[in-house]
């Protein structure tokens, strides 16, 4: 509503034309309320053509992305829009990108080793089940191969699926990863529902 500031994490939408008559479509996420009917927001795409005084609308909700089996084998941008040129996603549900952490009563209290099926990892640097894992290394040391093996083993041994988030990846690297996933069978190009991963 007019005169009301949006909540933190709400999505703001600009859809208008700039002074040159070009279409401008931008989604931004509220990060800070500055007062005096102003907010600080982070743009989720390029800001070319954006000028002071343009109208912006509060969507009333945070950025939401599609979830479920329809996302398997697909590639999404930060807004949950498919970027793999395979048409729209027929997901029956969406979920906000910011959610509350699970209650402590829902978490496993006893440390348990997550068996990856990769002997050298399970023996020398075991992963904790329910924990977070980061892979760091230079170019050509095998990070992608390790990720593919983890995704495959998680699907086979635990009946699970994975979400791969490429933060700061170059477009070429993301495309190479997608092609490698298809070659290894992690992404089934013939039947996406049999894929084991969704990419962001």
Distance between the termini: 33 Å
The level of helicity is 10-25%
Q: According to CATH, what is the class of the largest domain? A: Alpha Beta
Number of self-contained structural domains: 2
CATH architecture label of the largest domain = 3-Layer(aba) Sandwich
User: Which regions have little confidence, pLDDT < 50, spanning 5+ residues?
Assistant: none
CATH superfamily of the largest domain: P-loop containing nucleotide triphosphate hydrolases
Name the beta content range: 25-35%
> Order of SSEs, N→C?
EEEEEEEHEHEHE
What does this structure look like?
InterPro entries: ATPase_alpha/beta_chains, ATPase_F1/V1/A1_a/bsu_N, ATPase_F1/V1/A1_a/bsu_N_sf, ATPase_F1/V1/A1_a/bsu_nucl-bd, P-loop_NTPase. Keywords: ATP synthesis, ATP-binding, CF(1), Ion transport, Membrane, Nucleotide-binding, Thylakoid, Translocase, Transport. The chain is α+β, with helices and mostly antiparallel strands and 200 residues long. The chain folds into two domains: 53 residues, Thrombin, subunit H; 132 residues, Rossmann fold, CATH 3.40.50. It is built from three helices and ten strands, in the order βββββββαβαβαβ.
């Amino acid at each position: 509503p007019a005169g009301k500031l949006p909540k933190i994490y709400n999505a703001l939408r600009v859809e208008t034309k700039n002074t040159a008559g070009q279409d401008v479509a931008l989604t931004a996420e509220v990060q800070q309320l500055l007062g005096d009917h102003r907010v600080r927001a982070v743009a989720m795409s390029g800001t070319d053509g954006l000028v002071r005084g343009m109208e912006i609308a509060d969507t009333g909700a945070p950025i939401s992305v599609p979830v479920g089996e329809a996302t398997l084998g697909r590639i999404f941008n930060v807004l949950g829009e498919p970027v793999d040129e395979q048409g729209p996603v027929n997901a029956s549900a969406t979920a906000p990108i910011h959610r509350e952490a699970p209650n402590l009563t829902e978490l496993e209290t006893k440390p348990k080793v997550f068996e990856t099926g990769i002997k050298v990892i399970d023996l020398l640097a075991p992963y904790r089940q329910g924990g977070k894992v980061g892979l760091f290394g230079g170019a050509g040391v095998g990070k992608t191969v390790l990720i593919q093996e983890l995704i495959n083993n998680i699907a086979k041994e635990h009946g699970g699926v994975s979400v791969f988030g490429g933060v700061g990846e170059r477009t070429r690297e993301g495309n190479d990863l997608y092609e490698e996933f298809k070659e290894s069978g992690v992404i089934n190009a013939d039947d996406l529902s049999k894929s084991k991963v969704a990419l962001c």
